[in-house]
Amino acid sequence: MTTSPEPPATDRAGEPAQRWGMAARRVVQAVLDWALAVGVGVFAALGAGLVAIPLVQWGFAPPKLILWGPAIAFLAVTYACDIVIQIWVPVRRGGVTPGMLVMGLRVQTLRGGQPRARAYLIRWVLLTVDGLLLGLVAVVSIVATRRRQRIGDLVARTLVVRADRA
Fold first, then answer.
1. How far, CA to CA in Å, does 150 sit from each of 57, 70, 141, 142, 155?
2. CA atoms within 13 A on the CB side of 22
3. Nearest Cα to 119, choosing from 86, 159, 162, 157?
4. What does the alpha-carbon distance between residue 138 and residue 132 come to, in Å, rounded to a whole number?
């Protein structure tokens, strides 16, 4: 009685390892992109604080400006920077955010082409869903889907692939 040969153990074990490997790359990429946006926001808040303190001391502004000025500057600049990083930069740079550049990833359509700005907008809006439970929703989605897509990628019909394999 002959049986068909089984694939090597490395082939069977490679698929889950590849899924988790891509999920880990995408987590690091997301953290890098978010850290860049937050870092710019922190510098904006520091600048706003440096402007607010003398204005309050000289009596030109209410004391609440020392708290609210930097807080509003931080939120507004971080939000604007995130939009630039997630939408404008990939449209202009061939589907690559700064974090993707570091991790060797890029975004493409299901057919292999360059996504339009609308796809990046959809991906960015759905980051709110993918980011639930500290990104656990995105990680589960990446590991569970055949093409390793998060929810934003599924709706926008895009893929994140290794840049060297694209």
1. 50, 34, 5, 5, 9
2. 24
3. 157
4. 8
* pTM as predicted: 0.83
Show pLDDT as tens, one digit a residue, over the chain (166 residues): 444 444 444 444 457 788 888 899 999 999 999 999 999 999 999 999 999 999 999 999 999 999 999 999 999 999 999 999 999 999 999 999 999 999 999 999 999 899 999 999 999 999 999 888 888 999 999 999 999 999 999 999 999 999 886 5
Euclidean distance between CA atoms 20 and 14, whole angstroms:
10
Extended beta strands in the chain, E state: 105-109, 158-162
Query: Which phi and psi (to 5°) does residue 3 adopt?
Result: -120, 155
Torsion on CA atoms 130, 136, 138, 143, rounded to nearest 10: -160
